[in-house]
Amino acid sequence: AWTMSDMFHLEAIKLIAKHLRGAVNNEPEGREGMALGQYIAGMGFSNVGLGIVHSMAHPLGALYDTPHGVANAIILPTVMEYNALAAGDKYKEIARAMGVEGVDSMTKEEYIKKLRTCPFNDEFCPYYDWRFHMCDRLATMEPEMFVLNYCVKED
């Protein structure tokens, strides 16, 4: 990552945080904002490549037919913790881009915790709580059992 890719990614995060609810509700403005957000995100990662989240999500999709977004979401919290020491203030900027208030007065642990909380509400984001529960389970499960229980689609 570098200055230009960070600029693209932070703008994409702002747009997605602002327009996700409208897109889910099939509102034209929300869909347009999400389309622009994903386009700008692509401009960012096409300049630097993707990270460990994607590299770990691809095998889950290939081997167990896990949707790529689901695999990324399951793995993301663990990767964020793994990268926390090297991330510097980037998580603070991500929290700010997502609309977290009071970031400047928070400790690193506090704003990382805010990033792990749905920016909307429990009704809109039941998957968020599930995702972090699954990551806790993943940490205590044998990998084979995790994949069998959570990544294989039933016929």
Can you walk me through this structure?
By secondary structure, the protein is mainly α. The chain has 8 helices and no strands. It has helices spanning 3-24, 28-48, 52-64, 68-87, 90-97, 108-115, 126-140, 143-150. It is globular and about 40 Å long. It starts with a helix and ends in a 5-residue tail after the last helix.
Task: Annotate the secondary structure layout.
Layout: H1 3-24, H2 28-48, H3 52-64, H4 68-87, H5 90-97, H6 108-115, H7 126-140, H8 143-150
What's the alpha carbon Rg, rounded to whole Å?
16 Å
Number of helices: 8
Shape: globular
- What is the end-to-end distance? 40 Å
Calculate the mean pLDDT score and round it. 78
DSSP strand count: 0
Identify low-pLDDT runs: 120-135
Query: Which sheet architecture does the biggest sheet show?
Result: none
Structural class: mainly alpha
Strand content: under 5%
Helix-strand pattern: HHHHHHHH
Helical amount:
over 70%
In short, what is this structure?
The chain is mainly α.
Descriptive terms for the model:
about 160 residues; mainly alpha
